[in-house]
Write a structure and sequence with these properties.
Blueprint lengths: L11 E6 L4 H19 L2 E5 L2 E6 L2 E7 L3 E8 L1 H4 L2 H16 L1
Antiparallel strand pairs: 1-5, 2-3, 3-4, 4-5
């Protein structure tokens, strides 16, 4: 007899530099999360300088500091199959907010 073990999934990680300062970066992070909410039905809440996001098949956090955004998101198996297109949408959203 054998058992199948579920391999841990690596989160999708997206990191971007910015020169906005922490307050403006937090405002932009809120706007990014609002856009993701419309596209992926996620909820958001702040825990310190981390914006937590959670929805059906997705959970993670957008960490903000004086010079960086770093998004770490875990996707369900079904969404993991579409990681490429999901990543593209998220990267576009972040890049537009930082432009």
């Amino acid at each position: 007899m054998f058992t199948l073990e579920k391999a841990p999934q690596e989160p999708m990680r997206i990191r971007r530099n910015h020169n906005l300062g922490i307050e403006e970066a937090r405002k932009r992070a809120d706007r990014i999360a609002d856009d993701l909410k419309q596209q992926f039905s996620v909820t958001k809440r702040w825990e310190g300088d981390s914006l937590m996001v959670k929805g059906r098949g997705v959970s993670g956090h957008l960490d903000v500091d004086d010079t960086h955004f770093e998004l770490n998101v875990s996707l369900s198996f079904a969404l993991k199959l579409m990681e490429g297109p999901i990543r593209s949408v998220i990267e576009k959203t972040i890049d537009e907010e930082l432009a």
